[in-house]
Specification:
By secondary structure, the protein is mainly alpha-helical. Helices cover 60% and strands 0% of the residues. The chain is built from 10 helices and no strands. The radius of gyration is 20 Å and the shape is globular. Bound molecules: zinc ion. Zinc ion is lined by residues 59, 61-62, 64, 84, 86-87, 89.
């Protein structure tokens, strides 16, 4: 059994040939580029004629279709000097940010886990979390399709490889195969119940339906015991956002983004054994 928390494969990048490093860099940059274009294409403001494949990428300002050369991550941005070659409008820095973040994150993942199935799952989960985080932050939108993919990744990583299964499975006597499934059910229904009780008193929904599914997806990855901790850390992020980010007119917190930050914090705390003297996680 290999666990994402206890397993560390390599300690230096010498374990990779330069060809492998170049190949991995290209893959990570491409996923960064793909993720930012997916955020743009899935956003609810888009017309129904845009899907994840068609039409080919274009300038959002003048609608000019981009040359193949400009679609190459980093290179495309640099060749165009950060501006559309037709209308001279600045290209959003988000594309560059996304590509560089994916390159760095991918490198950290293969540094920690090497060329293993864990690297594959952790990177894929990061990819899906990234898309959901920014869609919820900007549009309060968590697409069902991405949530379902996250659930499938969560369930399969635990069912076939026990990647995120931890000692809580033994404590609760959950079979390893059902670890993700219990997390999924508990995540979905706990938020649903909180909203149900809220609705009795306030007569309106306090939490969106996408959030129930997202919390279920998080449970399918990290298991049932992780959920109260992730909800707690996520709520702290929510309070910070409420204080610092929001303008007074629209006091709505992107709960999904907060839960994703909570999940990331939970993973880092467990992986690097922070607060171990304070908490038994
Ligand atoms: Zn343009």
């Amino acid at each position: 059994m290999i666990s994402v928390y206890s397993f560390t494969h390599i300690n230096s990048l010498d374990s990779f040939t330069s060809i492998e490093l170049i190949l991995f860099s290209i893959i990570f940059l491409s996923f960064g580029s793909f993720a930012s274009s997916l955020i743009f294409r899935l956003s609810p403001n888009n017309s129904k004629n845009i899907n994840i494949v068609f039409p080919r990428s274009f300038c959002p300002n003048c609608k000019n279709t981009l040359k193949i050369l400009y679609l190459i991550p980093l290179v495309g941005y640099l060749i165009q000097k950060g501006r559309c070659q037709k209308c001279n409008k600045k290209i959003s820095l988000f594309y560059l940010f996304s590509e560089i973040l994916f390159l760095l994150t991918g490198m950290v993942i293969i540094f920690l886990y090497g060329k293993t199935v864990i690297s594959f799952f952790v990177f894929f989960i990061f990819f899906l979390f990234f898309i959901l985080f920014f869609l919820d932050l900007r549009f309060y939108y968590l697409p069902f399709s991405i949530n379902i993919m996250l659930i499938m990744v969560g369930l399969s990583s635990n069912y076939f490889f026990n990647i995120f299964v931890d000692e809580s499975a033994y404590l609760l006597s959950i079979s390893k195969g059902l670890f993700g499934f219990y997390g999924l059910v508990l995540g979905y229904f706990s938020l649903w119940l909180i909203n149900f009780i809220f609705k009795i008193f306030s007569k309106k929904d306090g939490i969106g339906g996408g959030d129930f599914i997202l919390f279920g997806s998080i449970g399918s990855i990290f298991g049932p015991i992780s959920l109260p901790i992730i909800l707690f850390i996520g709520s702290l992020f929510g309070c910070l956002m409420y204080i610092f980010l929001k303008n007074a007119s629209k006091k709505e917190i992107p709960l999904g983004s907060c839960l994703i930050l909570g999940s990331f914090a939970y993973f880092v705390i467990k992986k690097f054994e922070l607060f171990n003297h304070l908490l038994v996680l």
